[in-house]
Amino acid sequence: MKSENTNKLNQLSPEELGKLFPISLVEPQAEWKLLFEKEKELITSIIGDHAIRIEHIGSTAIPNIKAKPIIDILVEIPNNTSIKDEIITLMKTKGYIFILREDRPPAYLSFLKGYTNKGYKGNIFHIYMAEKEHTTLWDRLYFRNYLNEYGDIGKEYELLKESLAAENKYNREAYTSGKDVLVENVTQIAKQHYQKV
Q1: pLDDT at residue 2 in the model
Q2: Residue 156's closest CA among 121, 125, 186, 191?
Q3: Under a CB-based contact definition with an 8 Å cutoff, are residues 190 and 141 in contact?
Q4: Confidence of residue 104 (pLDDT cuts 50, 70, 90)
Q5: Is the sign of the CA dihedral 32, 35, 41, 46 positive or negative?
Q6: Are 79 and 131 in contact (CB under 8 A)?
Q7: What is the end-to-end Cα distance of the chain in Å, rounded?
Q8: CA–CA distance, 126 with 72 (Å, rounded to integer)
Q9: Which residues, listed in sequence order, are joined to residue 73 by a DSSP beta bridge?
Q10: Which one-letter DSSP state was computed for residue 178?
Q11: Confidence label for 197 from pLDDT (cuts 50, 70 and 90)
Q12: Strand, coil or helix: what is 130?
């Protein structure tokens, strides 16, 4: 992605970003898993051994529920500042938009693909990179696995997302925060469940 597109996106208000990238849920797509696998290979080719493990997370990793057509990917990287700086440079060179995220401390790396100053273009990816000690992020695997195992909880989650999407089509922050209580509750249940198994 060209730097001027990134600069323009960085200058937009949350309201402007919401209008440019509205919330839209679609039926589950078989291609989501394939898109993840291809992007996983690409990430590995870019940062090499710095990618310790790569996981498909988010709703597109849960078959049978509606989702925004955005592939969320979580990458474990070393807890090393110089390596993180190298990763940022390598990913930006390949056209990814870099954002240092501080919403779930400690800070972690985030890379976006598929965003332009005119809206979405092509397949859309959110890539999060953090060390294994970043439990807030890695706990997402418990949530994913539990919803894959218990379809009724997945459907409950889908209904909540549909309601929030209808109310907050242009407000990504409200849509996301509206899911927090359910996600946290299910994650805690899932952690207890899998630690007993």
Answers
A1: 40
A2: 186
A3: no
A4: confident
A5: negative
A6: yes
A7: 45
A8: 5
A9: 56, 127
A10: T
A11: low
A12: strand
